[in-house]
Amino acid sequence: MADRTCAFISYANQDFVIANEIRKQLTHLAQLGMGGSFLDCFLDTESIEPGQRYEPVIRSALAKTDWLIVIFTGDQSVYCGYEIGMYSIMKPHDDKPLHEKPVVCLHDVDQKKASRGGGRLQHDADPPGRPLSNR
Fold first, then answer.
1. Which 8-state DSSP code applies to residue 133?
2. CB under 8 Å to 4, separation ≥6 — which residues?
3. Domains in the chain, CATH or no CATH each
4. What does pTM read for this prediction?
5. 24-42 residues labelled b (16+ CB within 10 A) or e (exposed)
6. Of the candidates 57, 62, 107, 122, which lies 20 to 30 Å from 131 by C-alpha distance?
7. All residues at 6 or more sequence positions from 67 whose CB lies less than 8 Å from its CB, including other chains
């Protein structure tokens, strides 16, 4: 039986629509590959109960995380920096070349298009104005 893969999606609250769509797409792709039960996606709004201390929950989730997905639209919260910093300390991946590090940064996302399901996300490796590469 395969191990679980954990993805942590870091985003500012105003980017929840984008983060949730990414979670849905990852879950859909995992289910298509018959691995749906082996994927966990962490979104703070779904994983942290109201009134619960968030730091221990975030640290625990980051410790289990295989992939850190960072959504950057220019409206970052201090918590995104905290999550990136904690992940890089917990799992430095210094032995891997840049293209193999398990961190994906999405930027220049048009929330209006994403909320209609027609959003085209960009990856750091893509030139501005070009959609996310099919890799």
1. P
2. 38, 39, 40
3. 5-123 (3.40.50)
4. 0.69
5. eebeeebeeeeeeeebbbb
6. 62
7. 5, 6, 7, 8, 102, 103, 104
